[in-house]
Amino acid sequence: MVLSFVLLLASMNREYVNTFLSTKTGNIACQEKFLEPLKDEAKFSIFYANKYKWKRQIDEAVKMWLNGRLPVWLNNLPQWFTPEKMSRIPDDLVEDETLLLRIWTEQVQRILQGRRDSFVGELAQSGGEVEAKEGGGEDGKEGEGEQ
Hints:
The chain has helices at residues 2-11, 17-20, 26-35, 40-43, 55-76, 83-86, 97-125. By secondary structure, it is mainly α. The protein has one domain.
C-alpha cells in the first residue's frame, strides 16, 4: 500500500504534488477560504460548513461581514442569493431584527407559494373539481338532516 502511494506521487506532475498533500486541517482550510478576498457568493459557503470548523475562531469576522452585506443582498437580491441560501443564515448572527424578519418572511412566502403551486397542480390534474374531504360538508357533519 505504501509502495502504491509512493508510485502515485512519483507519477504525478511535480507542480501538482503540493495540492495533493497538505498539513492543513479541515478547520483551517474552511477558515482560510472565508478569510481570502473572495466574492460574497464564495464566502457564503461558510454556512454550508460545519459551524464547529469556524465558529470559535472567526465568528466575529463572519458576523461583521454578514451584517454588512445582508442589507445589500436583501435590497438587490443577487441571483445567487436564493431563498434556500437565506435559510442557511444562522439567526444568532443577524444583529438587526428587521433584517431577520425579512429573511423569515421570505422563507414563509416560499413555503406558501410551494403549497399554492401544489394545490393548483392538483386542481389542474383533477380537471377543476375539488373533492370534499372525509367528514362531509362545511360544518364537518356528514349526512345529518337527511332522513
